Amino acid sequence: MTTATTTKPSFFSKRGLTGAISDAVAEIQELYLSDQTPWVIGYSGGKDSTAVTQLVWLALSKLPPADTPRKPVYVITTDTLVENPIVAAWVRNSLTTMEKHATDANLPIQVRLLEPSTEDSFWVNLIGRGYPAPRPGFRWCTERLKIKPTSAFIEQTANKFGEAIMLLGTRKSESA
After folding, report:
1. pLDDT at 136
2. pTM (2 decimals)?
3. Who contacts 164 (Cβ-Cβ below 8 Å, separation ≥6)?
4. Among the listed residues 70, 42, 44, the one whose alpha carbon sits nearest the alpha carbon of residue 153
5. Strand 109-114 and strand 165-167: pairing?
6. What distance in Å separates the CA atoms of residue 81 and residue 94, rounded to the nearest whole number?
C-alpha cells in the first residue's frame, strides 16, 4: 500500500535559500530608497523578528554609502519589567551589540528599549489596583505592558516624520 504525500512548495523552491535572500535584500533596498518615511522594526529577539532585522541590516549594509539616505530605521523592543531576567538580559545585550555595530558600520539603525509607564506597570495593576493575575479571559497585561509603549513610540515617530512604516516578522505558517 502506498500513500501519496503532498508537500507544500517551499518559499526557497525556485531560487534556493541564497537566491531568496538576495531577492529579499534587493526588494528591501528598493523600498528603503523609495521615500524618506522612517521604518520601525518590532524586535523581540525571537527568530521571526531577528530574521527581519537581519535582512534589513544586510540590505542597508550593501547599499553604497552615497546612495544611502539617512532616514532612520528604529529597532524597538518593549521590556515589560517582569520578563525572565535571563531573557531580559539577553535582549538588552543584543540591543547594545546591535547599536554598537550599527554605529561602527555607519548604518542609520537606532535601537530603542521601551518600557510601560509606571501607572501601566504590572505591579501597580496587580498589587496597587488589585487586578487578578492575567489569564486567557482577562489579559490586561498585554495592552498595558507591550502595546501601549509600542503605540506611543510609533505615534511619536509618525508625528515627527508625518508617518512611519512598521516592519514585523511573521512566519508563513504562523499559528492563529
Report:
1. 86
2. 0.85
3. 37, 38, 39, 40, 154, 157, 158
4. 42
5. unpaired
6. 17
